[in-house]
Design a protein that fits this description.
- By secondary structure, the chain is α+β, with helices and mostly antiparallel strands.
- It has a domain of 56 residues.
- 28% of the residues lie in helices and 16% in strands.
- The protein has a two-stranded antiparallel sheet. The chain has a two-stranded antiparallel ribbon with strand order 3-4.
- The radius of gyration is 24 Å and the shape is elongated.
- The N and C termini lie far apart (65 Å).
């Protein structure tokens, strides 16, 4: 590190503690907290095989595709929604065959 960004703090026992000037106290929100998506857990048979980050949704949001932390998680959630609709036999006008 550059010497301009480092400062020494003298501890009470006569020891020096070196700390950079950009050091800050953690607020507990530096990393996103997540939980497993319960919708994907119930619907997707390959849910356990997903990568850990692809299974997580933001803990303060509902189990929606947009709440997933990764793009792959979002896409797999949307695929699971479509497969569930197909299994239930719900017609979807946006998926109608053309020609």
């Amino acid at each position: 590190m550059f010497a301009a960004f480092i400062t020494a703090i003298r501890l009470g026992r006569g020891e020096n503690f070196i700390m950079d000037l950009f050091h800050r106290n953690l607020q507990g929100k530096d990393t996103r907290t997540g939980r497993d998506c319960q919708f994907c857990y119930r619907v997707d048979p390959d849910f356990i095989k997903r990568g850990l980050m692809d299974r997580l949704v933001l803990s303060q949001l509902d189990d929606t595709a947009a709440a997933h932390l990764t793009e792959d998680g979002y896409v797999k959630h949307r695929i699971a929604e479509l497969l569930k609709r197909r299994a239930l036999g719900v017609p979807d006008a946006s998926l109608a065959k053309s020609a």
